[in-house]
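Design request, tokens follow.
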């Protein structure tokens, strides 16, 4: 059984015009790739299942002088399979 991974990208952008450039590039990428299932938060975090997009956000944040980190995550709020005991 394969688990679907989410990719989480957190970033901190400079507080100048480069911030706008970052968001324009991300919006352009999303339109070009017909992506609508991306979770944005107000805390500079993106959650996506698309590995390429996660790495794109990571690179673009760094390209404008920001700091970024990328993580792989697995959802835990789905019902566990029968194989998993309730004590785990």
């Amino acid at each position: 059984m394969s688990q679907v991974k989410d990719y989480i990208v957190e970033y901190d952008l400079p507080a100048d015009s480069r911030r706008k450039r970052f968001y324009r590039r991300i919006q352009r990428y999303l339109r070009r790739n017909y992506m609508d299932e991306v979770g944005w938060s107000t805390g500079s975090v993106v959650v996506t299942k698309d590995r390429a997009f996660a790495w794109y956000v990571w690179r673009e944040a760094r390209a404008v002088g920001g700091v970024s980190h990328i993580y792989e995550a697995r959802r835990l709020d789905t019902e566990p399979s029968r194989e998993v005991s309730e004590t785990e």
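Comment from the thread starter after seeing the answer: thanks! Strands lie at 5-12, 39-40, 45-48, 67-74.
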